[in-house]
Amino acid sequence: MAMAAAPSRPFDYLESLPGTTFYKLYQQPSTALAIFRRMLPDLAKCFVMALLYLKDPLPATDLEAWVKAESLKERDNALSILGRLHILSNTVIADNVRAYKVTDPFASSLRQALTGAEKTQSFGVLSHISDGAVISIAELDDYARRQWEGVLGYMVGTSGLGIQRDVNLSKGVKQLLQAGHLVEIRDRRVEITQDGFAFVLQDVSTQVWHILMLYVESADAIGMSSVEVLSFVFLLSSLELGKSYDKKHLTSNQLRTLTDLADFGIVYQDSPDASHFYPTRLATTLTSDSSALSNPISGSLSGPSGTGSNKAGSGFIIVETNYRLYAYTSSPLQISLIALFTTLKYRFPNLITGKITRQSVRRAIEMGITADQIISYLATHAHPQMRKHNVSRSTSNQAGIPPSVLPPTVTDQIRLWQLERDRVKATPGFLFKDFVSLAEYEAPCRYAEEIGVLVWKSDRKRMFFVTRHEQVAAFLRSRK
Asked: Is 153 in the same domain as 225?
């Protein structure tokens, strides 16, 4: 069974919330539906739907029997996620039998969302406006693209190349990018950080979630309720593209959030005083598993501009073994990204040329950008012809070895230039130690490796280091 991956940042934020906050969030059917659609792996969704309409709790042995023996890892992961999001709870029924049930109010809210029985305006109120005043989907897409590209352009410094931006960002947008450590101000200049470069390499849906979580986390500091803002974000994700929605039912905090999100292109409104608003594709695809695949906004940001192709992820970069780079693009955003680690030579209407040099790579590394990030960007946007040539050459010369899209001499040299700085990489996590016996140590260590959280171990010292501790701690408790 395929597993739908949840976006890590919103999931991590939700996981950190206390149980009382979940109770407030799940009062809204739109929130329950959004979390069900986007935050849960497929197996967890199956468990929820199987239990949703049961009158009594289901014995744990019955639920666990639904999963094959070779899929116990997926089962434990699904149950763990449902528990951490306070969707599934353990209870004890007759004869001290352990059982599972879907918690309230999540169960009642999800049932209302699925049957259309909710009457709390949790999914917005449609606005009735004249046909002549309706904004088309194409216009909404263009607005969202311009606003979002303006944000990314500010981060990578399009103005530093003499490229004029047609979007003026508000002070709040700039402060949020700084607070999220996506950019830094040095000598009155905006410089992208390592986190910022990783951010611009992500698909648009992941980028939007990242920004929204930064906004939610900062809500309390600017006098708003983070729970209300988060619930409103989930409401926006459930709205329909191309429809206008009335604002008269919104609270003051929700109206303020609308104005702030309009700066990012997530919603559109004629003015802050307008009686209605439109969600853009950036909002309506937030809880869609395939948003990045079918999103024209993603295509216009990730591929060449003005070349007649808006196909998401279409390659436009050629890198030669002599480190020369050719990029078939006129996108200010892509040109600015390439300029971060390349010495640009010439610029034509739909082509730029440059060279990857020691100085240009070291300049990028000093900004916090890593060699792997540079290589990942070049490989992701490699021209189809280059991809075809290098793949055929790699498969013919080294059968069984994964082909490299980029010339090996280039990738090796970029990494060597980073090694000159001899950086130490820190990994945050948790250390488990002081095990009484080797047998006591081996079982949780093996379990941590199976669920993909193990970073380091020492059998001699009976110690291991993990990036997450919740499931390992639960495993240890279950063995006592």
From this structure: yes
Does residue 259 sit in the same domain as residue 162? yes
Q: Determine if residue 124 is left, alpha or beta; phi over 0 gives left, psi from -120 to 50 gives alpha, anything else beta.
A: left
Per-residue pLDDT at 416 exceeds 50: yes
The side-by-side arrangement of strands in the sheet containing 88-93 is 58-59, 97-102, 88-93
What is the helix (H) or strand (E) element at residue 245, kind and residue range? strand 245-246
Measuring CA to CA, which residue among 24, 226, 33 is closest to residue 123?
A: 33
Quote the pTM value: 0.76
Residue 171 corresponds to which tokens in the numbers above?
A: 């002070």
Block residue for tokens 């206008």: 244
Per-residue pLDDT of 141-173, as tens digits, reads 999 999 999 999 999 886 555 555 567 888 999
Residue 121 lies in a domain: no
Q: How many CB atoms lie within 10 A of CB 375?
A: 18
Answer yes or no: do 404 and 434 share one domain: no
Cα dihedral sign, 205-211-214-219: negative
The residue from 393, 419, 445 where one domain ends is: 419
Q: State how far the Cα of 37 lies from the Cα of 10, in Å rounded to an integer.
A: 13
- What do you get for the CA distance between the two ends of the chain, in Å? 32
State phi, psi for 281 to the nearest 5 degrees: -60, -25
Locate 331 and state its tokens: 């996108």
What tokens were used for 102?
């879907």
Structural domain including 275 reads 131-284
Number of domains, the chain: 4
Q: Give the DSSP letter string of 64-133.
A: HTTS-GGGHHHHHHHHHHHHHTTSEEEEEEGGGEEEEEEPTTHHHHHHHHHHT---S-TT--B----GGG
Domain boundary among 419, 443, 464: 419
pLDDT score of 304: 61
Give the amino acid at 24.
Answer: K
Whether residues 276 and 137 fall in one domain: yes
Sheet containing strand 276-279, strands side by side = 245-246, 276-279, 267-268
- 100 and 58 Cβ atoms separated by less than 8 Å: yes
297 belongs to a structural domain: no
The reply to whether 368 falls in a domain is: yes
What is the pLDDT averaged over residues 436-449?
A: 92
Residue 255 lies in a domain: yes
We report the CATH number of the domain holding residue 14 as 1.10.10.10
Quick check: helix, strand or coil at residue 207?
helix
